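hey m, so remember when u said the tokens were messed up on ur end? i reran from scratch. heres the input so u can diff it against urs
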Amino acid sequence: MKATFNPRLLAGTVCILIFLYGCKTETKNEANTAVPEAQEATKRQGQAFIKDDNSTPNVLDIAIGSPDHTTLVAAVQAAELENVLVNAGPLMVFAPTNAAFDALPEGTVDDLLKPENKDALANILKHHVTPGNYSKDFLKKFKKLGQANDQNTTIETIGDDVYVGGAKIIASIPAGNGIVHVVDKVILPPSEE
């Protein structure tokens, strides 16, 4: 049997080789550009970074969506506590307004946002969170609350107003994983006062 030269077979083989070489080069380039994205993704992992437009907003979503809580959100991000605020809960978050942070001594917030003060900032922020989902009226039954930083804070009722650690609850917003009580003061832990 005599072998015959088939130009179509040769042309097809060349096309396949060019295609495969092109895919290999493209994959290599994609891998090189994905490294910075992968490094960034490693920094920002967890439930807090999953986009979900259909669920009831959680306590973190509520803070992020509020123009009156940009300082609180910046502090939560600096302390890397985003994932804590999106867990199943229920959580009560006492959310100081920007004005509450502005009332702190000058330079306090800037100092707390420095990387070397991350632990102190996290302690203060955790002092604003407690397990539960209690309305302002239900909180009137309490004298103390155990906070997420393993310290207690006081509850005081004056007339119809409820104060948590000296901060007045000025609004309450239900969340998918608890409730956000907007407060007019930063609640400092006993060791930070």
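this time it looks ok to me. The first helix runs from residue 7 to 43. if urs says something different then somethings off w ur setup not the seq
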